[in-house]
Specification:
The complex is a heterodimer of chains A (305) and B (258). Chain A has helices spanning 11-28, 39-46, 66-72, 85-98, 203-213, 221-226, 257-260, 292-304, and strands at 4-7, 32-36, 52-57, 78-82, 101-103, 108-112, 115-122, 127-134, 137-141, 158-162, 170-176, 189-193, 216-219, 247-251, 268-273, 286-289. Chain A has 305 residues and is an alpha/beta fold. A seven-stranded parallel sheet of chain A has the order 5-9-4-1-2-3-10, sandwiched between helices. In chain A, strands 13-12-14-15-16 form a five-stranded parallel sheet. Chain A has a three-stranded antiparallel sheet with strand order 6-7-8. By secondary structure, chain B is α/β, with parallel strands linked by helices. In chain B, 26% of the residues lie in helices and 30% in strands. In chain B, strands 11-10-9-12-8-1-6-7-13 form a nine-stranded mixed sheet, sandwiched between helices. A two-stranded antiparallel ribbon of chain B has the order 2-5. In chain B, strands 3-4 form a two-stranded antiparallel ribbon. In chain B, helix 3 packs across helix 4 (129-137). The longest helix of chain B is centred in the first third of the chain and has 17 residues, at 37-53. The relative contact order of chain B is 0.17. Classes of the chains: A alpha/beta (305), B alpha/beta (258). At the A-B interface, helix 4, strand 5, strand 8, strand 11 and strand 15 of A face helix 3, helix 4, strand 9, strand 10 and strand 11 of B.
Amino acid sequence: MAGIFVFSEDPALTRQLLTPGLELKRALAQPLVALTRSSAEAGALAGLGADRVVLLRGAGAPEALAPAVAALASAASVVLVGGTLRGKHLAAHVAATLGAGLSTDARTLRVAEGRLETTRILYGGLAVGEESLALPAVATVPPRTFPAPAPAGAAVPVETLDVAPDARVEVLSTQPAAGEGVDIGAATRLVAVGRGFNARADLDLAVDLAGALQAELACTRGIAEDEHWLPVERYIGISGQTVKPELYVAAGLSGQVQHMVGCREAKVIVAINKDERAPIFEAADFGIVGDLYTVLPLLTAALKD
Amino acid sequence: MPNILVCYKWVLDEQDIKVRPEDLGLDTSRAKGKISDFDRNAIEAASLLVEAQGGDVEALSFGTQALKLSVKDVLSRGPGRLTWIGDPAAETADAFVVAQVLAAAIRRAGPYDLILCGEGSSDMFFQQTPVRLAALLGLPCVTFVQKMTWADGVLTATRKLPDGTEEVRVAGPAVVSVLGEMNKPRIPSLKQVLGASKKPSRELPLASLGLAPGDLEPRAVRRTPKGFLMNRRNIVYKESDPAENVARLVASLKAEGL
C-alpha cells in the first residue's frame, strides 16, 4: 500500500521520525505507517498521529529486518529510517530493493512537485547540499533532528507481523561499550577536549572545568579513537555524536570541519586555544587565546566564585 | 586464500576546497584528488589480510576520467590489479547508479570471496554503496566493521553498534564496510610505488557493462552545494594577562545567562 513509512530500532528516534512523517502525510495525502520492533513502544506510537502501527516480531539484528521492511513498504512513497549505524544499513538495503534514491542524514525534508527534497551535509561539513529524489524515496534522519510530536487523537490499534530476518549473518556475541553509557546528546553543556592536551592525566583540567559548569566531557575523534583517552561515545563529529547544547566549550582543539559539524548547532561556542589562527575561533562566539594549561584552572576558579 | 575485491572512490580533497564568501559557492579549482579516506582503510585491510595468509586483492572504481590519476596510488597500497570505469556519468551519479555500475562490473569479473568498501566516501558520505551492492548481488553484508579475520571461507567480524560492538560470522562471499578506526593505512614505500607501475590495470568502458538506461539515471539529483556559513560572534580575548581574559569571558557568559 502507498504511504509514508517510518522505522527505527531506537524508540526515541521512531517518535522523532513521526514529526517529518506527519508533514509528508499532509503533503502527499497518504497514510503514515510506523514500524517498530518494540512492543512497549508500539503502544506509545499509536497515539502520536500514525494511521497504522505495525509491530515487527522476529529475532535477529535490526538491520537484518531490511528485506521484511522492504517487502512491507514495497509500494511506499517515502520511507524514513532513523540514522543510526544499523538504520543506515537497513535503509540502504530497502532503497536498493525499491530501486529508490536515498538521502543520508537528511536535515530537512519536504515534498515539492511530486519529489522529496532534502538538505544534507557534504565534504565533511564544509558544505550543505540539496537533493531532489524521485518517489519512492528513502531518507535517513539523524537522532534529535526533530522533536517527537505531541499526542494526537485516539490511539490506533497495533498490528503485529511476524517477519523472518536475514539469517546469513550470525551474531556470535554482543559486547556493551566499555564506556559509562553517558548520553552526550542530552547534555545541555559540554566541555570538549582535543589534541592540545599533552597527556591523559591532563584531562583532569577539563574535568574540573566541566564540574564547575555542570557540564559533560566530550572530545574529538583523535582523543577517542587514536589516543583512547575517552570512550568513543563522547566524541563529537561527522562519524560520531551530533549535539545541540546550550554551551560548548572547546579546549585545545583546532576546530576541523569534521569535528565542528557535530557541534555547530550549539547555542554558544567558546574556544580556548593558544593558536590565534586556529579555525575554532571562526566558529566560536567567545574565545580566549592562551595556553589551556593556564586558562582552564583560572576559568574553573573564576566560575566557582 | 581469499579472492578479495576492494572498491574505492577518487574524491576531491576537502581540505583544499574553499568557500567563496560572496556567494557561498565552493571553489574547487585548487583541490587535488585523493583516494577517499575510509576507502584507504578498506584497501589496507584487504592488503593486510592477503599479506598474512595469501590470496589476491583486486581494486575496482567508478569515476570520471580523473580516475586515471589514482592508478599508481591505489596499486602501490597493495592490490595486485585494478579495474576502473571512467565515464562522465559519474559526475552526477548517486549511490543508486554507483551500485548498479559496480555490481555490473563485479558480475562480469567475479566471483570474489570478499568485497570490501569504506564506511562512506569523504566527499558525499552516502554510506550506501556496500549495502546496495550486497542487495544487488544477493550477498550478505556486514557494515561498520572494526576488526575481521578470514578462515576456511568464513569471515568473523566485529561490527560497531551505537552502544557497543557485536561479533558476527558469515560465510563468504560477503560484502563488508570497514571503519576508519580499523587500521592505519600505509604510506607506500618507494619499492611499493615502483612496483605499482608493473601491476596490470584495465579500463572498462561503461557501455560494455550491459546496463539499461534506467540503471544510469540518478534517483537523487544533487543541486549545487553551498558552503556552510558559521554565523558566530567571534569575540576573542587575547590580552597578555590570562586572568583578565578569563574575567571577560566569565562576564560574557553571565551576560548570556549561562
